[in-house]
UniProtKB/TrEMBL annotation:
<dbReference type="InterPro" id="IPR036568">
    <property type="entry name" value="GGCT-like_sf"/>
</dbReference>
<dbReference type="Pfam" id="PF06094">
    <property type="entry name" value="GGACT"/>
</dbReference>
<comment type="similarity">
    <text>Belongs to the gamma-glutamylcyclotransferase family.</text>
</comment>
<dbReference type="GO" id="GO:0005829">
    <property type="term" value="C:cytosol"/>
</dbReference>
<dbReference type="InterPro" id="IPR009288">
    <property type="entry name" value="AIG2-like_dom"/>
</dbReference>
<feature type="domain" description="Gamma-glutamylcyclotransferase AIG2-like">
    <location>
        <begin position="9"/>
        <end position="63"/>
    </location>
</feature>
<protein>
    <recommendedName>
        <fullName>Gamma-glutamylcyclotransferase family protein</fullName>
    </recommendedName>
</protein>
<dbReference type="GO" id="GO:0061929">
    <property type="term" value="F:gamma-glutamylaminecyclotransferase activity"/>
</dbReference>
<dbReference type="InterPro" id="IPR013024">
    <property type="entry name" value="GGCT-like"/>
</dbReference>
<dbReference type="InterPro" id="IPR039126">
    <property type="entry name" value="GGACT"/>
</dbReference>
């Protein structure tokens, strides 16, 4: 028996609601659950870089951004992390 306890995933950039890749966080089988709008306790800078315009967070204190936490089953966590 596999235990699939939910974990929290904090998404930002194009995965946030209303952004182009938000559909990745939508699940017709009900595995993911939107928890609301959130922020990191310590702000971190989000930048968009590379020729593909990929957003990512730098591991340095700076200006924070709004983010969207979800719960996902532990078994699905590798898909999001």
């Amino acid at each position: 028996m596999t235990i699939t306890l939910p974990i929290r995933v904090f998404v930002y950039g194009t995965l946030k609601r209303g952004e182009p890749n938000a559909k990745v966080m939508m699940d017709t089988e009900g595995h993911q659950r939107f928890l609301g709008v959130g922020r990191t306790k310590t702000p971190f800078p989000l930048i968009v870089a590379s020729k593909y315009n990929i957003p990512f967070v730098l591991n340095e204190p700076g200006k924070g951004y709004v983010s969207f936490p979800y719960t996902v089953p532990l078994i699905l966590a590798p898909l999001y992390c």
